[in-house]
């Protein structure tokens, strides 16, 4: 009995040694050490499935972000050094209910599949060739509020807002519906210095592979040309949360998002309420000493031969961004008179709605149903 166990263990060790043959420091572990190691490995590598998606708990230092060539010398930043005074300190928000999914020292990462990469390639291709290749083109309709510092002395260093999150149904695989924060610099060119960071929630079959509502991120440092991607379809975005990660199916009813530049490290932090989700390291951005434009918006896209899909909760003005705070260099909220808010609306009632008010925030949403006239 004991003998056969020892043999099994020996065989395992032999296999282990074989696979780490180059590691001369390898040694026999005590039984206790081995047990501990196995438990650790199990919790580290135990994948779990949710809505048909596989997630892993990955050693925070070994996450895919660090494969980015510009992050060779990057120092991991687990928490912000800058205290965001404006951040919602009232933890009544639903998001604190998110269960901790990974052990300490690891981060939650959505496993990228072959299909994910194939679809991501398709997105790149569609972007490059424009959307006009097919006989049926795709049209996007956006409603939002923007804060811009163009030709003005103000510089923006962050944004925070509370977002209502809804599960929308009936969105076709060829359509998308997204609600997001977009913070950027260099919008007026050249493209190679157009840096953009995005976070929010969407139904987007091409990105996520299903029709659920997902938490998502996006970044580019060259105006959507060749850098950046959604979620972690490429390396760059550093994940620090054990709970919330880009690509997760998001079923709670709100998100309290902040994106802001850390005053010490210059990394662009992404927080949900008081919890760090991750950040965009300064190394992958080439023009984000500050931001010149912030947008809170909803975008519905659809092939032009289909009625456009809903946004928000599917009702006119049924969804909102609340507690909107545009942050200055000290990460304090700018007074509303220097935020220079402008609302924009591609298609209005009865399809979509968008109203900004300093006190009540940005109210938006609609059932969609718009079809461009046929000529
Ligand atoms: C990392 O540091 C080394 C040594 O200082 C330097 O040669 C290299 O260029 C750095 N790489 C990046 C990507 O910053
Ligand atoms: C937190 O928010 C809830 C609901 O909005 C409110 O009832 C409560 O008084 C708030 N608590 C604090 C400490 O502000
Ligand atoms: C998602 O699509 C499936 C079939 O493709 C459909 O049965 C389901 O109702 C859809 N769910 C939503 C939320 O639209």
From TrEMBL:
Residues 296-318 are annotated as: Disordered. Residues 135-371 form the Neprosin PEP catalytic domain. Residues 296-305 have a biased composition (Polar residues). PANTHER family: OS08G0411100 PROTEIN, PROTEIN, PUTATIVE (DUF239)-RELATED-RELATED. The keyword Transmembrane helix does not apply. It comes from Zingiber officinale (Ginger). Pfam families: Neprosin, Neprosin_AP. Keywords: Signal. Residues 1-22 form the signal peptide. It comes from the Eukaryota. This is Neprosin PEP catalytic domain-containing protein. InterPro entries: Glutamic_endopeptidase (IPR053168), Neprosin (IPR004314), Neprosin_propep (IPR025521).
């Amino acid at each position: 009995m004991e003998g056969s166990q020892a043999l099994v263990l020996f065989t395992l060790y032999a296999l282990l040694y074989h696979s780490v043959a180059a590691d001369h420091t390898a040694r026999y572990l005590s039984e206790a050490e081995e047990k501990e190691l196995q438990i650790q490995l199990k919790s580290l590598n135990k994948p779990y499935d949710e809505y048909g998606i596989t997630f892993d708990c990955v050693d925070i230092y070994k996450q895919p972000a660090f494969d980015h060539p510009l992050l060779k010398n990057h120092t991991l930043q687990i928490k912000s050094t800058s205290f965001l005074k404006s951040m919602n300190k009232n933890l009544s928000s639903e998001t604190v209910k998110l269960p901790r999914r990974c052990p300490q020292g690891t981060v939650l990462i959505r496993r990228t599949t072959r299909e994910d990469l194939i679809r991501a390639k398709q997105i790149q291709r569609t972007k490059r060739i424009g959307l006009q290749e097919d006989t049926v083109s795709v049209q996007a309709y956006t409603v939002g509020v923007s804060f811009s510092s163009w030709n003005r002395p103000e510089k923006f260093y962050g944004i925070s807002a509370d977002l209502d999150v809804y599960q929308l149904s009936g969105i076709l695989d060829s359509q998308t519906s997204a609600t997001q924060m977009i913070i950027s610099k260099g919008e007026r060119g050249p493209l190679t210095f157009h840096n953009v960071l995005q976070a929010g929630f969407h139904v987007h079959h091409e990105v996520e592979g299903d029709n659920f509502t997902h938490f998502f991120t996006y970044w580019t440092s060259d105006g959507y040309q060749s850098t950046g991607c959604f979620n972690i379809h490429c390396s760059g975005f550093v994940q620090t949360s054990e709970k919330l990660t880009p690509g997760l199916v998001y079923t709670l009813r709100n998100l309290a998002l902040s994106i802001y530049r850390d005053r010490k490290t210059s990394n662009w932090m992404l927080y949900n309420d008081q919890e760090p989700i991750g950040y965009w390291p300064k190394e992958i951005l080439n023009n984000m000493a500050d931001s010149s434009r912030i947008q809170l918006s909803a975008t519905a896209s659809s092939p032009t031969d289909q009625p456009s899909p809903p946004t928000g909760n599917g009702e006119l003005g049924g969804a909102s961004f609340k507690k909107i705070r545009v942050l200055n260099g000290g990460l304090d909220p700018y007074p509303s008179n220097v935020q220079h808010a402008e609302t924009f609306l591609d298609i209005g009632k009865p399809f979509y709605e968008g109203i900004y008010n300093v006190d009540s925030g940005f109210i938006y949403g609609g059932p969609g149903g718009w079809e461009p006239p046929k000529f």
